[in-house]
Amino acid sequence: MNLFEDLPRNPTAIYGVDFSGALYAGRKIWISLAAITGGVLHIRDCFRGLSLPNSGRKLQDCLSALVTFIASHRNSLFGIDFPFGIPQAMAETFGCDNWTGFIFSFPGKFNNPQEFQRNCKEVFGKREAKRTTDKESHTPFAPYNLRLFKQTYFGITGILYPLLKTGSARVIPMQEIIDDKPLILEICPRSTLVRERIADKKYKGKTKVNRENRQQILNRLMDRNVVIPKDLSRVIVADTEGDALDSVIAAYTVGKSLFNPTFPFPPGWKREYALEGYVYC
């Protein structure tokens, strides 16, 4: 069966974004551009966030440029890999009963990522709590985990909040689709690899084995109707941190999700998604 035939909608473009909350996020954020043609997902480009117009190495410069970039690409889909929400018990302390209200309240609730993480720990104690969708999709970390809390904080305050505040994009499945607005999905590259049974080996690193594993993952994606030009393949495999590859996996996840006949909704809707968010994988 052709993965990308008979799509319920055909966007102008698909973007996979490997996100970062690092100080110099412009070098860590990678973006893959893809398009669906003739039932095949074509990866057209793969570049760092600092290459965006008016972007730079520093976090705030890159996030501002990414917001502008997303808002300007109507009828496009963006898969981004940071948590769009937090566990319900913490979200309920905001006094909100829906995800959009939570996003609008978030920047005023926490002054910095450390305060966000500290408050989550105060609510949950030593037990690190995951969202319902994290448990179902087997994401590796809770949204406020030591390795993820900055991504969650800056993703919400620097990307989702400004886009929602200006009405420049819609975030699915928590919001209704509006024609001519870019759509944003939360994805997790590792969850996609696990669900697709593509790879269970380490691919982030400088060793020969790491490089071979990155190439193997690309090969497995190409077996699934994904076309990647050789020059881009070399760039993706050469990125030792695996961020370029993660952006390709993000684009693939968006394309794969489009094939789901219930898109933009999950096959089974749970009330927790409306407040915590949902991971497509």
In short:
With 281 residues, this protein is an alpha/beta fold. It is built from 12 helices and 8 strands.
Question: Which helices and strands appear, and what pairs or packs with what?
Answer:
Blueprint: E1 13-18, H1 25-28, E2 30-37, E3 40-48, H2 59-72, E4 76-80, H3 88-91, H4 99-109, H5 113-124, H6 132-137, H7 149-165, E5 170-171, E6 183-187, H8 189-196, H9 208-222, E7 226-227, H10 230-238, H11 243-258, H12 273-276, E8 279-280
Parallel strand pairs: 1-4, 3-7, 4-6, 5-6, 6-8
Antiparallel strand pairs: 1-2, 2-3
Helix pairs in contact: 2-7, 4-7, 5-7, 8-11, 9-10
Give a verbal description of the structure.
With 281 residues, this protein is an alpha/beta fold. It has a single domain (13-85, 151-280), classed as 2-Layer Sandwich (Nucleotidyltransferase, domain 5). Helices cover 43% and strands 14% of the residues. The protein contains 12 helices and 8 strands. It has helices at 25-28, 59-72, 88-91, 99-109, 113-124, 132-137, 149-165, 189-196, 208-222, 230-238, 243-258, 273-276; strands spanning 13-18, 30-37, 40-48, 76-80, 170-171, 183-187, 226-227, 279-280.
What are the key terms here?
alpha/beta; 14% strand; eight-stranded mixed β-sheet; 12 helices; disordered N terminus; Nucleotidyltransferase, domain 5; 281 residues
| Content of β-strand | 5-15%
- Based on Cα principal axes, name the global outline: globular
Please name the fourth-level CATH homologous superfamily: Ribonuclease H-like superfamily/Ribonuclease H
Structural class: alpha/beta
Number of domains: 1
| CATH architecture classification name | 2-Layer Sandwich
Assigned CATH class:
Alpha Beta
Average pLDDT number: 93
Low-confidence segments: 1-8
Major pleated sheet: 8 strands, mixed
The residue fraction in helices comes out at 40-55%
State the helix count: 12
Distance between the termini: 19 Å
Order of helices and strands: EHEEHEHHHHHEEHHEHHHE
Stated plainly, the CATH topology is called: Nucleotidyltransferase, domain 5
Number of strands: 8
Radius of gyration: 18 Å
